[in-house]
Write a structure and sequence with these properties.
By secondary structure, the chain is mostly helical. The protein has two domains: 2-40, no CATH class; 43-118, no CATH class. The chain is 31% helix and 3% strand. It is built from five helices and two strands; from the N terminus they run αααββαα. The chain has a two-stranded antiparallel ribbon. Strand 1 (85-86) and strand 2 form a beta hairpin.
Length: 118
């Protein structure tokens, strides 16, 4: 069902950027009306980290708002989570994580999994 909605209503963008569009169904209008509430509880599932902005997107498990609490300026504002992932191993590069995040966030990252791309 999700693929049908995506194909008809937001084929070239993520759900977060979807709009009502032309002649929306009642179901689609209902989904969009709840989008703000749902988005507050959503977080990125990390695969390769290419699209996820390290400091602005919701991606950290067990953190309030799923975002880093403290930003340590050792990386730029447009830094991506992919910079923290060893592509060959499919694992976090903990040396980088330790230089950028506070100890609580390090543990959250260390114990979260990098998902396999599908």
């Amino acid at each position: 069902m999700g693929k049908v909605f995506k194909g008809r209503n937001y084929p070239n963008s993520p759900l977060s950027d979807a709009t009502v569009g032309y002649s929306p169904s009642f179901t689609w209008r209902s989904i969009l009306s709840a989008k703000d509430v749902v988005s507050k509880g959503m977080r990125w599932r990390i695969r390769n980290g290419e699209q996820v902005q390290m400091w602005y997107d919701s991606w950290l498990p067990h953190n309030f708002g799923f975002k880093p609490v403290i930003s340590i300026p050792n990386s730029g504002p447009d830094a991506r989570v992919k910079e923290l992932i060893d592509e060959d191993l499919g694992a976090w590069i903990m040396e980088k994580v330790e230089t950028l995040f506070c100890p609580m966030e390090e543990k959250n990252i260390e114990y979260s999994l990098v998902s396999e791309a599908s």
